[in-house]
Amino acid sequence: xxxxxxxxxxxxxxxxxxxxxxxxxxxxxxxxxxxxxxxxxxxxxxxxxxxxxxxxxxxxxxxxxxxxxxxxxxxxxxxxxxx
Length: 83
Fold this sequence. Notes:
This protein is mostly helical.
C-alpha cells in the first residue's frame, strides 16, 4: 500500500486529467455529473493514475469501468495501492 498517496491526491489527479478546476470533484463525484468524463476522459484518468502509482494502474482491468471517484478509490484499495 502506498501510504504517501492520499485520496485527496487521487481526486486532484483526476481533476488534472479531466482539465477541471481544483476543487471541482468531491469524494462522491461521478462521470454522470462531469461532461469531460467521457470514454476519452476515462483513458486520461487511467493514464494519470498510472503515472501517480508508478505504472501499476494501467494493468487493472476494472479501472476501465470505474466511472466515479468512489469506484476508483475502491479499485485502488482492493489492489493495495491506496489505504
